[in-house]
Amino acid sequence: MSDFVCKECGKEFKTRKSFHCHLKAHSLTIGDYYVKHFQKKDLFTGDLLQFKSYDFYFSHDFNNFGNYVNWLRTEPESKARDYVFGQAQRKFQDKKIEYSPPNLFYDLSFMANIYTYRKLWGSYDDFTKEAKIENIYKKDLPKGFWDADVSGMNIFVDTREKKPLKFDNGTTNKLDFGDYTAAGEHYTKTFVDRKAQDDFRQTFGAGIERFRREMDRCVHFGSYMFVVVESSIEKLEEDNKLSKFKSNLGYVWHNVRQLMLDYPKNIQFIFAHNRAGTKKIIPLILRHGDDLWNVDLQYHIDKKIHGVGQRKTLISE
After folding, report:
1. I need a labelling partner for 250 at 20 to 30 A (CA). Which of 147, 171, 300, 316 fits?
2. Could you say which DSSP state residue 134 is in?
3. For the segment 195-243, what is each residue's pLDDT rounded down to a tens digit?
4. Pairing relation of β-strands 170-173 and 155-158?
């Protein structure tokens, strides 16, 4: 029997594409068909689940992330634990994930994040052990991280930086990858790639293959890349809605997530909110260097700014 049998007329199809084309014969859109015949409901509100795409419809149980967060807060702990663990297991198996992603991956994936795993398991390490993935973010933020003295540190700035940040001890130098790295005794093969908002959307949209080649060079030389963005997730989303030249942010976020999985030991993304935040965080990253490679830095930034909790960040699918 075919995997695709029309519930309107019983006709069978070999592919999803041919089946979806057939639905026009019944004057039904793809979304109308699935909502009519499968009647999936939002677990929190009981409303019919909206159809956004085939994959989304059959892999999600909530119309928006806020409903998911509220459901987690109101359900018995055992039920919430079973649900988030099943969701994580499916994701890990589907993406063949062997190493624990950073918290940002969960925030960009319509999933429970590290705050929730810690609440339900006691520690994130216990969750990763049960999920049979290696926790590579076991280290805490270095002591005195935010107050580290960076005044005497020399910083190399790539010659191709279009709008370079000005540091007291900054020196222009051609870098093989990234935009900034520490010089002299503070050099630890740690690099920073600064991204203004528009550059971020372009690089991780149409320019993704070029960035991947840059990351391949980074890995080849045993180095580590922090991509520091002069914006926040929320601001990227809001500004894109108002832009005359909208980006497909769903595709951008997909590429960001995939980079975290493809280069788990060589890349982190940091959203510094603005240019001033970027100028502050880059020297701190380079000062601590390889001591941060196993620290989930964005998690600690979010914790400092927002406190502990499951965020409600809404991103484009």
Report:
1. 300
2. B
3. 999 999 999 999 999 999 999 999 999 999 999 999 999 999 999 999 8
4. parallel
Vertex 233 angle, CA 136 and 114, to 5°: 35
Record the tokens describing residue 264, joined without a space: 């788990």
Radius of gyration, CA atoms only, the chain? 22
The answer to whether the CB of 72 falls within 8 A of the CB of 84 is yes
Q: Cα–Cα distance between 211 and 75 in angstroms, integer? A: 42
| Burial class of residue 183 (count of CB atoms within 10 Å of its CB; 0-12, 13-18, 19+) | middle
Closest CA to 138 of 102, 107, 112: 102
| 270-300 tens-digit pLDDT | 999 999 999 999 999 999 999 999 999 999 9
- Report the chain's mean pLDDT, rounded to a whole number: 94
Taking the alpha carbons of 114, 120, 124, 127 in that order, is the dihedral positive or negative? negative
Residues 58, 216: Cα–Cα separation, whole Å: 35
Question: Do the beta carbons of residue 189 and residue 221 sit within 8 Å?
Answer: yes
The alpha-helical segments, DSSP class H, found in the chain are 16-22, 30-38, 54-59, 65-74, 77-94, 103-107, 114-121, 124-131, 197-203, 208-220, 233-242, 249-262, 275-288, 297-306
Length of the chain, please?
A: 317
Range 118-138 burial, b when 16+ CB lie within 10 A, else e: ebbbeebeebbeebebebbbe
In contact, 207 and 198? CB cutoff 8 Å: no
Q: How far is CA 123 from CA 2, 10, 84, 90, 126, in A?
A: 45, 50, 15, 21, 5
Judge residue 89's burial from the number of C-beta atoms within 10 Å of its C-beta, 0-12 exposed, 13-18 middle, 19 or more buried. Answer: middle
| Distance from the first to the final alpha carbon of the chain | 33
Q: Using DSSP, state whether 277 is helix, strand or coil.
A: helix
Q: Is 128 helix (H, G, I), strand (E, B) or coil?
A: helix
Q: By C-alpha distance, which of 282, 247, 209, 233 is closest to 106?
A: 233
